[in-house]
# Entry
Amino acid sequence: MSTDAQAPEKPARIGETRGERLRRVLSSRAASVAALIIAILWTIPTFGLFISSFRPEDDIRESGWWTFFTDPSFTLDTYNYVLYSDSQGGGLIRNLINTIVITIPGVLIPVAFAAMAAYALSWIDFKGRNLLYISIFALQVVPLQMALIPLLSFFSTGLHIGSVPITPEWNLDGVNTIVQVWIAHSIFGLPLAIFLLHNFMRELPSDVMEAARIDGASHSQIFRKVVLPLVTPALASIGIFQFLWVWNDFLVGRTFAPGEATRPLTAVLGDMAGTWGFGWTRLPAAAFIAIIVPLVVFLLLQRYFVRGLLAGSVKG
# Structure
């Protein structure tokens, strides 16, 4: 009688690390089914909101969104009202433009400064570099609410860019408050952006930097021609995070751009329902107007976003 049949089987994967085991479990069929179920449950309320945005106001008040499939009715009147009406809860096209004007510089300014600062902290040896990096890292734990009053006090006493004063008395169609929002978003976004970009840049091969220096390249040339092309996925992923944060921001826009001519979209969504909540049927359409631009940006930059998240995770 052979004893080989009685011998216990060896483990299927010998020497498997904890990370590999976790990766295998998360990529299994059961994990995929669970992720699909969670995605469906997460999407159902958003899908219902989308259906409600196209239903007539009377139908929204009388029945749930799921009745659309048995008694379909379609209208664009709600979108026309919230975008172009001069009544309460309307005219969001102006606030949508304000949000775009706030968001684009609110993303480009901190990402540009963060890239230069991260390069300096990663590849330029100067006194106090480590202390400066630790100080920037520590700023991430400071809630932005703590900086609102000091910033308001700073802006109220006057801000000068070059020889041009930017004060509450000098205001050209809301330019003053728009600049304040740009500065606030840049200040609040810089610590995290510098921290993440520094981690990406430190993973770049040192041989490439040394070869560029031997060829006579300056730091500015290395930064523009060597570093930036290599960290493009990281810049895109950080840009997406900053874009979503600035676009969906309520507190900063409400605080630094309170005027009717400069308020962003998020600052007026809460007021659309009216004092007694009679205008709540317009909120679904307004909500989808607010999310359509971030959704398009994410879909266009998705491949860079995924590459940026994975950059630096694998060496060799």
